Amino acid sequence: MLLQSFLLSLGTSVGMAGTGFATSVLLARLLEPAARGELAALMLAGMLAAGSAQLGLGPAFVYAHRRHRLPPGLRRAGLAAVALAALLIGLAWQQAQFGAGRWSGTPLLVLLALVQALHLHACALAQRHDGLRLFNLLRGLPTLTTAALLAGLALAGRLDPAAAALATTTGFALAVAVALRRDADLPHGSDAAAAQDDPPWRLASHLRYSLHYHLTVLLGMLSTNVDKLWLSWSGQAQALGLYTVAYATSRLIGLVQEAASGALFSRHAGRDEARMNEAVARVFRMTFHPLLLLCALLSLAALALWVPVFGTAYAGARGAFMLLLLECVVGGASWQLAQRFAASGQTGTVAARQILALLPLLALLPWIGRHDPVLELAGATLLSSLLRLALTLGFLRHRAGLRLATLLPRLDDYHPVIDHLRQLRLSRIR
């Protein structure tokens, strides 16, 4: 089941990556770096507001769904809480950063934050179903819808930052509508396999898990976006445009690790902790080492292909892309390993590694920007991710009893994947 969920998530991620890359190239070709930075600032604010509004309620529901008999209406209460939080945070952010009207399109922020927050919460709830079909549908639909709308705007000659933000909002809104419709047909009770001797559900314990998880998410968002936040709030629109193109393109390599992390949490959250060490180590071995090799190959390809693809206006982002490519693999591996603690309810451990790895990056920010802020930020972000991976490995060794030797590559890890693909091909031939 874990392998099937992973392959389904991976296939969805591949489709999203291809579509997202084409969209990124389209925006780079039609928008100058300053306009691209304007759009990036608005999208970043919406994404962070939506993420901050989650309150950990979605993962907490999945965890409790596996262990307790839940009271009716808990899912709707979580949805209402997320929506209210998104509205308040979106309004506060709009007034704080965009209140003076420095950049266009800012009234869209509140709507973008609300719709994206509902989408994130719906995706989190969908992880309680092992097959992850609804989860992957909700992930892919906004990307495809947004790409189609942006292509239409480009053909009509109406593509600007505000129009692009509205297209993105429409994509998330469509996914939310599908989620509400499809989720109504799915069971909402507790997991049928939940242990009967587990303690009864209690609101205090539920909120404790959700807020601990949310703290981890907030720290993760801060550690992965503090670079872009620094550029956004300092008003460096052109540098932000260059950095955004480098960052977004580098994220394409992390789709495998993203799919694996989602499959690990969906499969093991609230279940047998003894099997988590083996599952996390196996997935790490199968993804981290091959992706390091792919990272080197893509960096070499960027030397020749970056300018022809994105144009001379974005030539200054090539070096940052190469550093961020490696950072994506290292950061994805760290989050993948951290699922060992997140799925077993040890969210404090996950938060600790985030805090410790974030401090050096914050200390470096005052020294960045004197020569090349785009390249310097990429280097600082890479150092932070390397520290976070080292901390995660240390926690796994001392708190989960995972021997680091088990993370070394093994050829036999790939046999189940090869056998599964072979069976799929034979079934299609028949």
From TrEMBL:
Transmembrane feature ranges: 41-65, 77-96, 108-125, 137-156, 162-180, 291-314, 320-338, 350-368, 374-396
Keywords: Cell membrane, Membrane, Transmembrane, Transmembrane helix
Domain of life: Bacteria
Subcellular location: Cell membrane
Membrane association type: Multi-pass membrane protein
Xref: InterPro entries: Poly_Biosynth_Transport (IPR050833)
PANTHER family noted in UniProt: O-ANTIGEN TRANSPORTER-RELATED, PST FAMILY PREDICTED COLANIC ACID TRANSPORTER
Protein name: O-antigen/teichoic acid export membrane protein
Source organism per UniProt: Sphaerotilus uruguayifluvii
